[in-house]
What we know:
Structural class: alpha+beta
Order of helices and strands: HHHHEHEHEEH
Radius of gyration: 21 Å
Shape: globular
Number of helices: 7
Largest sheet: 4 strands, mixed
Strand order of the largest sheet: 2-1-3-4
Distance between the termini: 34 Å
Helix content: 40-55%
Amino acid sequence: MNTGLGDAMNLAWKLAAVIGGCAKGDLLDTYEPERIAFARKLVATTDRAFQAASSEGRVAEVVRTKIVPRIVPRILRTKLGRRVFFRALSQTGIEYRTSSWSGKSIGTVRAGDRLPWVAPAQPGEPDNFTPLRSLDWQGHVYGTASSDLRSRCDERRLPLHVFPFDVRAKAADLHGDAVYLVRPDGYLGGVFGADGALTDLAEYLDLHGIRTRST
Length: 215
């Protein structure tokens, strides 16, 4: 189900952008390259799991009835085990770094990665995922956004959201004062250093013919 939802989201926003004149047509060419690798991995993994579960013989029976029921619960009680299980089930580890629409990057979090979640400063306050509800292109800065950057984003009608560069942002491996250009699906089109952000951002938007729905 999660794979199907991911496929649908990936294709839907791209179709809407191209049909609405908000992006160049080659955006549609990125659908298969971005999604096919995980689809193949999932099918292969599912096949192996089914074969293991349906295999006959004493060894296979012992693995199913004795070993797996004892080992898996112990693994899931560990922090690392829960993290690995969550990433696999939620598919938050999928990345599109080799996509033709993944631009420049700095830092650990790269273009093509899913935007990391940053916890709000206080429970109940909006987090950095709240603006993603718009399902449109937007910029994120964790730290300080210059007045020139704010003006450039205003000119482009590109929403710019500025968050503190604090321990929570650092824990998410985000780079202070960098500009994270977020796609409608929550993945990063580019990560631009503060010094060259104005040029890099403009070049990316122009190269791909990106317009927000408010433009």
